[in-house]
Design goal:
This protein is of the alpha+beta class. It has 19 helices and 24 strands. The relative contact order is 0.07. It binds 3-[3-(1H-pyrrolo[2,3-b]pyridin-5-yl)phenyl]propanoic acid. The site of 3-[3-(1H-pyrrolo[2,3-b]pyridin-5-yl)phenyl]propanoic acid has 13 residues, from α3.
Length: 636
């Protein structure tokens, strides 16, 4: 018996070591990637554990600090990770949480649903395995305990280091440079994620402090996802109030907030256990069908929709709708290409039934809003029919089908899309330089004249009637709307090349809006890039260097000896560069740098577009003034 116990105890320890060793061998399996996205997963994992405490009603404050020395700490005022001996492992619960895969925070807990966060709940032990140093400090039982680890291995036992009347956990970790290519945390990435988490967890304060750059921010949303919807709609002309539903069911918790605005696009964001389900899933399906059913029933019952009129379609009732759907359930199944589609079928019926019932009740109790919503949807229906007629005419006339490449496109000679690039260039003069400077084998140039149409405020028939957009679509080869086919893309890389000024930033945003709204897969699959032309040419005698930022310019000036004259040329536009210079600095794959556009956060994209494109002028002006200087801030 004693022998048996010993054996299994030994086996446990071996399993623990093997477990964390597996994480270090194949980190990608646990945190997705070891690039900057994977790096930030470490923070999300710990924050998610703290949020679990908040959702259990045990934690009110979370503070994430990015320290000077490259470490990050996450402080919460939850119950504190237990330090008592854990039965199964014979170790303290703290050590178990930090060394056993998937031990998470929820073992031994009764009732309620396990809400796993992070990359689907890989656990704090993964963070420990991938940190060159991790210190866990726990306030609990009137005491302060501390334990240190390195690369998942115990450095010190659980030590009592002081007394405390409060409770909570502080995890401070330094990502391991042997694992991560980049070990520097990004303040904006952290801030955006924390904002989202704060919306999803009402009543909890989440702070981010950046000691490296002396920045800080605090998020606290009493209204939860209701505030989220208000935030998303803040620059829009709203229609009616925010409708809010929060219901606890046997299948889990269903929380929905929605509001209409006078825009044409729909913005629905769904979450399961606080994880953004980008690919949607059962909760979204249930919501959509209940929305259509509720509005049609209400419109018929109140005779706003006449007997002879057709039902409003699912698209009609979603036009101009902003909605957040957040469900929490015991055993979430994540499916799909990026494991971000909720597969639990019981959630479809749960959301559908609850939303149908409660939204119907809302409409009956708020007849004014009811009428406004139906009017908006009916308008969408009429516009849809008119737009379809117009679009059919446009398409019938062969606008896109003829597929004659636009005259101003200087195409490349290779016909292998995987090798080809399309530079979309602002203005004819820069277009001319680009045409002469390019490698015509695989680089095609499409010059655009002046501004393209703002697609945010136009329906597809208008979009298709715009010449600059038409040329772009034909050059891409992918079609649009129902005829869109990403397989037909003629270039693997589509590079937006605009001047480094406010107009350039505007044109770039218009193009990004076009791609985001009508060709989203191109953005999702990473086909869209932004060229990075230099800001300065600095020469002395025969020596020339290009500077892409002001810092680089300063550094270059220091490098030159100051006996002969140094000339600095500030490029105001691409047109000022001759073809060779444009090739050397911006187009040559061997030396250029380009920024790949990623839809990391559709919400932020929408914010950027709304701010830049929205009809309200003051916020737009402000945005351009604060961000026009720095290209990198305009990422969508
Ligand atoms: C295990 C059990 C309990 C809480 C936690 C772990 C916990 C984990 C983390 C990670 C970061 N902050 C955390 N806070 C708590 C339940 C504790 C109890 O029942 O008293």
């Amino acid at each position: 018996m004693a022998e048996d116990k010993k054996k299994s105890y030994g086996a446990e320890q071996i399993q623990v070591l093997e477990g964390l060793e597996a994480v270090r061998k194949r980190p990608g399996m646990y945190i997705g990637t070891t690039d900057v996205a994977g790096l930030h997963h470490l923070i999300w994992e710990i924050v998610d554990n703290a949020i679990d405490e908040a959702m259990a009603g045990e934690c009110k404050n979370i503070v994430v600090t990015l320290h000077q020395d490259g470490s990050c700490s996450v402080i919460d005022d939850g119950r504190g990770i237990p330090v008592e001996t854990h039965q199964r492992t014979g170790k303290s619960a703290l050590e178990t949480v930090l060394t056993v895969l998937h031990a998470g925070g929820k073992f031994g807990e009764e009732g309620g649903y396990k809400v796993s966060g992070g990359l689907h709940g890989v656990g704090v032990s993964v963070v420990n395995a991938l940190s060159v140093k991790l210190v866990a400090k726990v306030q609990r039982n009137g005491k302060i305990y501390s334990q240190e680890y390195s690369r998942g291995k115990v450095v010190t036992g659980v030590e009592e280091v002081g007394k405390s009347t409060s409770t909570g956990t502080t995890i401070t970790f330094t990502p391991d440079p042997e694992i991560f290519q980049i070990t520097e945390f990004d303040y904006d990435t952290v801030k955006n994620r924390l904002r989202q988490q704060a919306y999803l967890t009402k009543g909890v304060s989440i702070k981010v402090l950046d000691e490296r750059f002396d920045k800080k921010y605090e998020f606290y949303f009493e209204g939860g996802i209701r505030s989220y919807v208000q935030h998303l709609n803040k620059n829009k002309e709203i229609i009616g109030k925010v409708v809010y539903i929060d219901k606890e069911l046997p299948e889990g918790n269903v929380e929905i907030a929605l509001q209409y605005s006078d825009t044409y696009q729909e913005n629905i964001f769904t979450f399961a256990n606080n994880i953004h389900t980008l690919e949607g899933g059962m909760h979204l399906t249930g919501f959509k069908s209940a929305l259509t059913r509720t509005i049609n029933n209400y419109a018929r019952k109140n005779n706003i929709l006449k007997e002879k009129e057709a039902n409003l379609t699912a698209e009609d009732v979603r036009e101009g709708l902003t909605a957040i759907i957040s469900v929490k359930l015991a055993d979430p199944q994540f499916e799909g290409q990026t494991k971000s589609k909720l597969g639990n079928a019981e959630m479809r019926t749960a959301v559908e039934n609850v939303f149908y019932e409660q939204f119907t009740e809302y409409l009956e109790e708020h007849p004014n809003d009811g009428k406004l919503f139906v009017a908006k949807c009916s308008l969408a229906a009429r516009a849809r029919m008119a737009a379809k007629a117009a679009r059919d005419t446009v398409i019938r006339k062969g606008v896109l089908e003829g597929m004659t490449l636009p005259g101003k496109l200087a195409d490349c000679s290779s016909k292998d899309p995987s090798k080809c690039e399309l530079f979309i260039v602002e203005g004819d003069s820069a277009g001319g330089s680009a045409k002469q400077g390019r490698n015509r084998e695989f680089q095609a140039i499409l010059p655009l004249r002046g501004k393209i149409l703002n697609v945010e405020h136009s329906r597809m028939d208008k979009v298709l009637a715009n010449n600059e957009i038409k040329s772009t679509i034909i050059a891409l080869g992918v079609g649009i709307g129902e005829t869109f086919d990403v397989e037909k893309l003629r270039y693997d890389r589509i590079v937006i090349m605009t001047d480094a000024d406010v107009d350039g930033a505007h044109i770039r945003t218009l193009l990004l809006t076009l791609f985001y709204r009508y060709f989203k897969p191109l953005v999702e699959q990473g086909h869209i890039y932004i060229a990075q032309p230099p800001l300065y040419k600095i020469s002395q005698g025969k020596k020339t260097v290009y500077a892409y930022t002001d810092d680089e310019k300063e550094a270059a000036l220091k490098d030159f000896k100051d006996d002969t004259k140094v000339s600095i040329q500030r490029y105001k536009g691409l047109g000022e560069m001759n073809p060779d210079q444009l090739w050397d600095t911006t187009m040559d794959p061997a030396t250029r740098s380009m920024m790949r556009v990623a839809v990391e956060d559709a919400e932020r994209a929408d914010q950027v577009f709304d701010t830049l494109m929205g009809t309200e002028v003051p916020p737009r002006k402000k945005f351009i003034q604060t961000h026009a200087k720095s290209v990198k801030n305009l990422d969508i």
